[in-house]
Amino acid sequence: MPRYLIEVSHDAEHAACVRALHAIEDYGSHLFTNADWGCLDGVHSCWLIAELDNRNEARMMIHPEFREEARVIQLNKFTREEIADLVAGLKK
Description:
Blueprint: E1 3-9, H1 14-27, H2 29-34, E2 36-37, E3 45-51, H3 55-60, H4 64-67, E4 71-75, H5 80-91
Antiparallel strand pairs: 1-3, 1-4, 2-3
Protein backbone atom coordinates (compact mmCIF):
# COMPACT_ATOMS: atom_id res chain seq x y z
CA MET A 1 0.00 0.00 0.00
CA PRO A 2 1.40 3.45 -0.85
CA ARG A 3 2.77 5.63 1.95
CA TYR A 4 2.22 9.39 1.95
CA LEU A 5 3.89 12.23 3.78
CA ILE A 6 1.25 14.83 4.57
CA GLU A 7 2.55 18.29 5.40
CA VAL A 8 0.24 20.97 6.76
CA SER A 9 1.70 24.44 7.25
CA HIS A 10 0.27 27.46 9.02
CA ASP A 11 1.24 31.03 9.87
CA ALA A 12 3.82 31.71 12.56
CA GLU A 13 1.57 33.66 14.95
CA HIS A 14 0.63 31.96 18.21
CA ALA A 15 -3.07 32.14 17.34
CA ALA A 16 -2.40 30.35 14.02
CA CYS A 17 -0.58 27.54 15.84
CA VAL A 18 -3.50 27.14 18.24
CA ARG A 19 -6.01 27.18 15.37
CA ALA A 20 -4.04 24.51 13.49
CA LEU A 21 -3.69 22.33 16.59
CA HIS A 22 -7.42 22.54 17.30
CA ALA A 23 -8.34 21.90 13.66
CA ILE A 24 -6.20 18.76 13.51
CA GLU A 25 -7.43 17.58 16.92
CA ASP A 26 -11.09 18.16 16.03
CA TYR A 27 -10.77 16.48 12.63
CA GLY A 28 -9.52 13.20 14.04
CA SER A 29 -7.71 12.09 17.16
CA HIS A 30 -5.75 9.49 15.14
CA LEU A 31 -4.28 12.37 13.11
CA PHE A 32 -3.48 14.42 16.17
CA THR A 33 -1.72 11.63 18.06
CA ASN A 34 0.38 10.65 15.02
CA ALA A 35 1.32 14.12 13.78
CA ASP A 36 4.76 15.63 14.40
CA TRP A 37 4.93 19.40 14.81
CA GLY A 38 7.78 21.86 14.19
CA CYS A 39 6.25 24.94 15.86
CA LEU A 40 8.52 24.91 18.90
CA ASP A 41 11.53 25.03 16.56
CA GLY A 42 10.11 27.86 14.43
CA VAL A 43 8.89 25.63 11.57
CA HIS A 44 5.13 26.08 11.56
CA SER A 45 4.06 22.79 10.02
CA CYS A 46 2.92 19.37 11.06
CA TRP A 47 3.78 16.11 9.32
CA LEU A 48 2.05 12.78 9.23
CA ILE A 49 2.98 9.58 7.40
CA ALA A 50 0.06 7.34 6.51
CA GLU A 51 -0.50 4.22 4.42
CA LEU A 52 -3.48 4.91 2.17
CA ASP A 53 -4.92 3.68 -1.10
CA ASN A 54 -4.26 6.89 -3.05
CA ARG A 55 -3.29 10.57 -2.95
CA ASN A 56 -6.92 11.73 -2.80
CA GLU A 57 -7.53 9.63 0.31
CA ALA A 58 -4.46 11.26 1.87
CA ARG A 59 -5.73 14.74 1.00
CA MET A 60 -9.14 13.98 2.49
CA MET A 61 -7.46 13.29 5.84
CA ILE A 62 -6.61 16.99 6.07
CA HIS A 63 -8.97 19.45 7.72
CA PRO A 64 -10.79 21.44 4.98
CA GLU A 65 -9.29 24.72 6.25
CA PHE A 66 -5.79 23.48 5.37
CA ARG A 67 -6.50 20.96 2.61
CA GLU A 68 -5.82 23.11 -0.45
CA GLU A 69 -2.43 24.37 0.73
CA ALA A 70 -1.22 21.08 2.22
CA ARG A 71 1.44 18.99 0.51
CA VAL A 72 0.83 15.30 -0.07
CA ILE A 73 3.94 13.40 -1.15
CA GLN A 74 4.00 9.72 -2.05
CA LEU A 75 7.03 8.11 -0.46
CA ASN A 76 9.12 5.35 -1.93
CA LYS A 77 12.31 3.45 -1.23
CA PHE A 78 14.93 2.44 -3.78
CA THR A 79 16.76 -0.86 -4.01
CA ARG A 80 20.46 -0.83 -4.86
CA GLU A 81 19.57 -2.09 -8.33
CA GLU A 82 17.07 0.74 -8.89
CA ILE A 83 19.68 3.28 -7.82
CA ALA A 84 22.22 1.77 -10.24
CA ASP A 85 19.65 1.93 -13.06
CA LEU A 86 18.89 5.56 -12.25
CA VAL A 87 22.58 6.47 -12.21
CA ALA A 88 23.15 4.60 -15.48
CA GLY A 89 20.25 6.51 -17.04
CA LEU A 90 21.83 9.83 -16.03
CA LYS A 91 25.12 8.90 -17.72
CA LYS A 92 23.47 8.30 -21.12
